[in-house]
Amino acid sequence: MNGIREVHWELDFRDVVNRKSEKELSLNFHDCSFAVIRDKHYKYIHFTALPPLLFDIENDPYELKNLSTDTTYTKTVAEYAKKMISWRMSHAERTLTGILFDYERST
């Protein structure tokens, strides 16, 4: 990954016309999304309302074996969930809360 430690992306898979995803997965319209964190070893996928997925992409490059339910990987799942939450928090919309004040000038 050429100096890049990890990549993140998100996907909204709602079907606004037919609601196919919602019906097939028994999801609420607003629960049809996921976020991904991938580094050179693991790929962690966190769904809004479905169980997470974890793949060891070094040993399973085709992502055929989900490790998230294997108790051997409980700590890894927790670590990547924490990374995901931290990333989401630092990249969240902050239109109203991200206002910076020049404290020194206001005192």
Question: Could you characterize the architecture of this molecule?
Answer:
The protein has 107 residues and is of the alpha+beta class. It has one domain (6-106): Arylsulfatase, C-terminal domain (2-Layer Sandwich), CATH 3.30.1120.10. Helices cover 25% and strands 22% of the residues. The protein has three helices and four strands. The chain has helices at residues 20-25, 74-90, 103-106, and strands at 6-12, 33-39, 42-47, 53-56. The protein has a four-stranded antiparallel sheet, covered by helices on one side. Strand 2 (33-39) and strand 3 (42-47) form a beta hairpin. The longest helix has 17 residues, at 74-90. The radius of gyration is 18 Å and the shape is globular.
CATH class: Alpha Beta
Give the termini separation: 47 Å
CATH architecture descriptor text: 2-Layer Sandwich
Total domain modules: 1
Unreliable residue runs:
none
Q: How helix-rich are the residues, as a percent range?
A: 25-40%
Counted by DSSP, the helix tally is 3
Reported by name, the CATH topology is Arylsulfatase, C-terminal domain
- Structural class estimated from helices and strands: alpha+beta
Mean pLDDT over the full residue set: 85
Q: Note the main sheet.
A: 4 strands, antiparallel
Multimerization state = single chain
Shape: globular
Strand order of the largest sheet: 1-2-3-4
Radius of gyration: 18 Å
Number of strands: 4
The percentage of residues in β strands lies in 15-25%
Which sequence of SSEs, written as H and E, runs from N to C?
Answer: EHEEEHH
